[in-house]
Records
---
Amino acid sequence: MEVIVDDSQLSLAIGKKGQNVRLAAKLLGWKIDIKSEEEKRQEVQGAIELLSTGAPVSILIDYGLAEATVDALVKGDIGTVEKLGSMTPELLEALEGIDENAVSLIQQAINSYYGQEYAEEAPAQAEASAAEDNGEALSASAEANGEELSAVAESPEPQGSDTMSESVEAGAATGNEEENVPPLETKEPETEEPAAI
């Protein structure tokens, strides 16, 4: 546990030869680290500066950049990958020890660095696009099936029977007695004669 106390109360919190902090640690069963407000403020400020500066240029050695090139960049006051990435090739060539070939190697190392950083996002994007492609394929398939279905719907009735009632009567005539369904009677539609005026 970390305890932060006022600068004027630091010696009281620690106690004579650390007696107070040792007793508190023994009673609580925890390791206690006592810091003054000023000490903590400096620690936080250092952490903020470290985070705001970005990745050091030396990390590009892992991505194929020569140590001599990294040293030349540091001597040219380029300490972070972010600052290096924002520079034009002309500005880089103006630095001592950096030539056209070195600029090309720097560009490759920076691309590799940022490619590695975003490589974790690529599979997620690939899965999303694959799902989208599958959706498009399914809709295209559905459209093709819709055309096939409409072609079937437009085709004439099968040759087996002319009407549904005939097929039901045929089923009754074959002796299908399990279903005691009486045969349907078919009626001719009545035509009305026009009324005289």
---
Amino acid sequence: MESWVAMLVTPGLGDTWLGAQGDMWDAQKDMTAALAGALVCLGLTAILHRVFEKGERVKSPIEPAPR
């Protein structure tokens, strides 16, 4: 959507107005870096949760079916 507005406002200077710095894949690279950072944080959170888990388990409100 930003690129459409940039083309309407300044037809010849759309990339400059968006701050793409001459790279037409700038936004995709930014989103890929954000996804990679989120996945790293998710992995670190899972590892730290397992390391520092105190062995307390939340009991399920659903009872297992009798056998």
---
Amino acid sequence: MAMTELKADVDPAEVGFDPARLDRIDRHFRRYVDDGRLPGWLITVSRQGRLAHVSGYGSRDVESGLPVEACGASIR
């Protein structure tokens, strides 16, 4: 099975999200990684079956140093 990269398929404003507020969520969780409280994160936000925001930061595997990647994730 091929890995596919998650990408937003709609402008957040088109489905009622404020892009600036979504950026605030990213900054909030980025601080958790920078402060050592989380190794990493991947956030997806959708509405009406449309993916409006995808972001990630940090490590998905601390021991091997693998970064968080928005590919191969399963969203339901």
